[in-house]
Write a structure and sequence with these properties.
single chain, alpha+beta, Calcium-transporting ATPase, cytoplasmic transduction domain A, Calcium-transporting ATPase, transmembrane domain, Rossmann fold, eight-stranded mixed sheet, seven-stranded antiparallel sheet, 22 strands, elongated, disordered C terminus, binds adenosine-5'-diphosphate, binds magnesium ion, transmembrane, HAD-like_sf, nucleotide-binding, translocase
Length: 842
Amino acid sequence: MNARGLDGLSTEEACSRLARHGPNELPAARQNSLLRLVRGIVLEPMFLLLLACGAIYLALGDMHEALMLLAFVFVIMGISFSQQRRAERSLLALRDISSPRALVVRDRRAVRIAGREVVPGDIVLLAEGDRVPADMRLLESASLTVDESMLSGESVPVMKHAAPGATQGSDSAVYAGTPVTQGTGRGEVTATGAKSALGRIGMSLGGIEKETTPVQKETRRIVNVVAVAGLALAAVLAGAYGAMRQDWLGGLLAGITFAMAVVPEELPVVLALFLGLGAWRLSRAQVLTRNIPAVELLGATTVLCVDKTGTLTVNRMRVRTLWSEQAEHDLPQQGAPAVPESLHGVLEYAVLASHRQAFDPMEAAIGHAGAELLADTEHLHRDWTLVSDYPLSREMLAMSRVWQSPDLQNRVIAAKGAPEAIIDLCHLDPGRSAGIVAAAGRLAAGGLRVLGVAEAAFPRQALPVSQHDFAFRFVGLIALEDPVRADVPAAIAECRAAGIRVVMMTGDHPNTAMSIARQAGLTVDGDALTGADIDAFDDETLRSRLPQTNVFCRVQPQHKLRLVQSLRASGEIVAMTGDGINDAPALKAAHIGVAMGARGTDVAREAADLVLLNDDFASLLTAVRYGRRVTGNLRKAFVFLVAAHTPIIGLSIAPLLAGWPMLLMPVHILFLQLIIDPSCSLVFEAEPLETGAMQARPRRPEARLFDATVLSRGLWQGGGVLLILLAVFALARQVGQSDEAARAVMFAALVLSSIGLIQVNRNWGMLPSGMLGSANPYFAWMLVATLALLAAVLAVPPVRSLFAFSMPDLRLALVGAAASVLCVGWCEWTRRRLQGRALRRP
Ligand code: ADP
Ligand code: MG
């Protein structure tokens, strides 16, 4: 290997190359999002209705009103635009952190950098599960196999070999975007970004998709139904008004005003905003959402299937016990005591069976123990060279490495792996096997991960295809400790309280699995099931065993897939963690696939909906919490929207029935829409999780977010407000006040009670006194802004006349204030009445 292959580029050199060649990314298919946003807004019904109103005002010769509506058009566009931009920007931010990373050598050290910062000439280290970040020429490889189907269309893994100096196109070239299915390698980057083979054929790797969620579909349906019904009613209203008063333009205006009040065009925006911002908030809690609908499903998750190693445990291992058939030795936490000579071989061959620069914490621990405990012995063979290796496979949970010593004729083969696998490789008689199995079981029952170690010598040059063809001699067992993460027991207890089952899946020994499960606080009433059990069961039997089993051991990726499928078939909402390249199908099959940011492979992360950036079980629980928060807050926003629109609709119809002048004109409805709706989505979106939300059972998956409970609660609240407002207006007219003054008082009461509705619905569990103190800066801002605008509308004469108001006298103002208090009181009362019942269901 050349020297550059070891040193890599210097940071300065890499910077200047980055400036010269540009970032290593493909020109994204980012269409002109600005234009698309504007088009979306222009086609919004609200916008069209406003235009129609403007046209009518013009036809009526009302230049002022027409101009004012035009001004509102711009404000509406602005607000709509900024809300959608906010949702969109949160997605873009996510896309940036989710971009693949690469392990490169810079300034002689291996560092992980963003894939877009890779430059030509970089030395990149590849391992199983990575996506090759750029086109490269291999300098070194060990069983490196890549899947080039995305370039060639043929889905056959291709073996690649290092050939320094070879030209492009030979089998030493690997290409950007292809996943490494096996082995490791080191290569020099030849082309990046658009100049790579992938870039030349103009492909792009999917980033974060903006998909339609089930709730979004549901919302669209509701919006369509309500819009059609509203428009029909508006037409009837317009006709009736026109016919009764012989004023067709006025009727049209009343109809359009009504339509503006009922068409729930803000619902989809609210939804996109809640989900997008939810994902953005999650990213700040170190959980990356790759698939936005996952946020919504998280709240309904019933089963979390998690890996043991690294998710429940810290994944920092330490060699605890060495065992051979003659001796056993425990290593204390501190210090490096002398290990009995008879056990040196166990450690010696365990080290030889590991990678020298280990990625795997287990191998790192073995290497560390070897360096410490065998320091002054002849058992560390730093001058030996690696000839070949046999990686771990699904069929054989053991790996071997073949060494050449400078002064020995024979090659030395060292193997380590699951004790059963090593016993199998050594072809031991039943008596010896039983002794080893018993010792392994005993060590594993203490929660240790136990590996068997074996060695063999091989005289010939040509190595066999299978590890079985070596004559292995059993050396001993090595047991490693990997403690449970400190925050895991509490997190699992919280899951149990929240009605979420936690299931452990591991490739480890049954005893180790059960011991760790117990330490973590999983329910371990039933026995553990093994991968072999799962294979032996038919679907029916498997499904019948699932409810009692929370620990699955010696499982492999295909078993995870079957578990997910069975759990799904039993009606569970399944979140599953995985990190290996073979976990991708199970991650895809789960409702919510979860990959690990640090430990997980690129392939697993791409298949996942969520990526835990700090690999930790507790953050999965955090994600569930956020999921419940988002769905809970959405329901609150929905209730508010129903409640706020009910009086508006009622006040649009009432004048017709009562023979009153029009109560609400387009400008009033615009005021309400502009102030109340956006601030409500901000306020509700920022509401924290309800106390008690994590003690409730998960939302039933088939349950709609927008259901009868939401509707009836909103109608109750809004209906009461409507009646009070109508009473105020009737009273004001009765006592001989002008229509304008009555309208002003009624409108002020409407605005104030809308704010009251927001406040009341912010939190369904807490009492209002506690709630006023709870921090939600948006609410304070909204309150101040709304009050200021309301004051302006009432106090500034030109605006006042635009709103067809006149200044009420003190008596009337007091009536308005009393009505507002009454409205809020009514909402609060309904909240408490209804709270005990249906709304306990999250
Ligand atoms: P886990 O679910 O705990 O991550 P793995 O699937 O990684 O388990 O490993 C399953 C089993 O495979 C281990 O219990 C061990 O016996 C064996 N194994 C894993 N990694 C290695 C390795 N690097 N060398 C030898 N054996 C290994
Ligand atoms: Mg593992």
